[in-house]
Amino acid sequence: MCMTNLRPADKIFVALDYDNMDDALRLADRLGDTIKTMKVGLQLFFKSGPAILDRLHERGFQVFMDCKFHDIPNTVAGASDSVTSHGVYMFNVHVGGGLEMMRRAKQAAVARAQALGIAVPKVIGVTQLTSTAKQVLNEEIGIPGDVQSTVIRYARLAQEAGLDGVVASGHEIEGIRQACGDEFLTVIPGIRPVWAAANDQVRIMTPTDALRAGASYLVIGRAITHADDPRDAALRILEEVQQSEPSEGPHQ
């Protein structure tokens, strides 16, 4: 898909970070005429199972399955096959699992999608979590250097494995685009409009700044889901995103 053809609303994923399906679907229904892609993470999926994917698809939403697969290549290939069979728009794996794991994930997704005659989901590599600061990276995870250089190295590895893009913070977008090109997707969590609190994420950015840096997709959670009026919050963000769209310049 050419990113230049996407509407602002198509570039936003709403993180349904709920512990039950009823609340998640209630929120999705309130946003149904504004944003079309919902992110389903570990908490909601383990509580609701694959039924949440079916219910969202029945309502016309796309799904970004955010379960961050990280296991031996054969196991991840099996997980990729399974999630693809549910018709998700996108899912992710940890780049830290290595080249073979990522290759097998993409290959399994392509094979299952072709067998079912459905669109191949976008397979995205998780580089470093937005909660990871340099001290955590160096002293706890045991990777030397700064976060940005690690993320860019992981992005190159994901591209070599044939993945469609990576998850990273907005602060790494420019470096990833320089290293991997404009067509390599960047999915950016940790997005906060100026009127929302940062909470527990360290490497955050506003929607305007992320899109101007070249982000492909923005993942927004609490700023919408915890708002007094989620639909109004979504519309405010969409207005901000629309105003940030460049008329010319870097490929979006």
From TrEMBL:
InterPro entries (UniProt xref): Aldolase_TIM, OMPdecase, OMPdecase_AS, OMPdecase_bac, OMPdeCOase_dom, RibuloseP-bd_barrel
Listed GO biological process terms: 'de novo' pyrimidine nucleobase biosynthetic process; 'de novo' UMP biosynthetic process
EC code: 4.1.1.23
Residues annotated as the enzyme's active site: D66, K68, D71
GO CC terms: cytosol
Catalytic activity of the protein: orotidine 5'-phosphate + H(+) = UMP + CO2
Binding site for substrate: 17, 39, 66-75, 130, 192, 201, 221-222
Residues covered by the Orotidine 5'-phosphate decarboxylase domain: 11-237
PROSITE patterns tied to this protein: OMPDECASE (PS00156)
GO molecular function: orotidine-5'-phosphate decarboxylase activity
Leading EC class: lyase
Pfam families: OMPdecase
Pathway(s): Pyrimidine metabolism; UMP biosynthesis via de novo pathway; UMP from orotate: step 2/2
Keywords: Decarboxylase, Lyase, Pyrimidine biosynthesis
Family per similarity comment: Belongs to the OMP decarboxylase family. Type 1 subfamily.
HAMAP family, per the entry: OMPdecase_type1_B (MF_01200_B)
Entry function: Catalyzes the decarboxylation of orotidine 5'-monophosphate (OMP) to uridine 5'-monophosphate (UMP).
Subunit structure: Homodimer.
The name this protein goes by in its record: Orotidine 5'-phosphate decarboxylase
Species: Tumebacillus flagellatus
